[in-house]
Amino acid sequence: MEIKFNIDQNLSKEKAEFWLKKMTTKVKRAVKDLQTEQDFLWGYQESKAYPIEFSQIYLIQVENEKTYICTKDGSYQFKGRLYQVKDSLPSDFIETSRSAIINYRFIDHLEIISNGNIDAVMKNGLRVQISRRKIKNLKERLGL
């Protein structure tokens, strides 16, 4: 694929134009990433709010009906539901179950457990179980 960028600092609004033979999932993911305006989520620790960039997020998961954002440095509470944040995430994120979404760039390795399930072991040591329904999507995204 040929890629060309025209940079003009005088543009009032940025735009992207694609010339394709067919629409692929790779192009759809790129378009979604380009259309995402926000590149962070607000995470809370005690009474303080912190902007957490998508590139720093390892995992977003629900525990005890609360949504948490896990990074290399710690865990933050997200004041919203998992389904609300799912559509705003870039294509680096993969839904692994109804209660967890991981950033596949931070997967250290996958581990097959004795009962046939798969765990994703993240670079910070967190283990995330992949639900059977989501294994196919994970393998597809990772090129396995």
List the helices and strands and how they pair.
Layout: H1 25-35, E1 40-45, E2 48-53, E3 57-63, E4 66-71, E5 75-78, H2 82-86, E6 93-97, E7 100-103, E8 107-112, E9 118-122, E10 127-130, H3 135-142
What distinguishing features does this structure have?
144 residues, alpha+beta, 3-stranded antiparallel β-sheet, 3 helices, globular
Poorly predicted segments = none
Q: Beta-sheet strand percentage? A: 35-45%
Shape: globular
Helix/strand order, N-terminal first:
HEEEEEHEEEEEH
Q: Assign the structural class, choosing from mainly alpha, mainly beta, alpha/beta, alpha+beta, or little secondary structure.
A: alpha+beta
Instruction: Please give the order of strands in the largest beta sheet.
Output: 5-4-3-7-6
Helix percent band: 10-25%
Rg computed from alpha carbons, rounded to a whole number of angstroms:
17 Å
**Structure annotation, total helices:** 3
- Would you report the number of β strands? 10
Q: How far is it from the N-terminal to the C-terminal residue, by CA?
A: 23 Å
The major sheet is characterized as: 5 strands, antiparallel
Q: Quick check: average pLDDT? A: 84
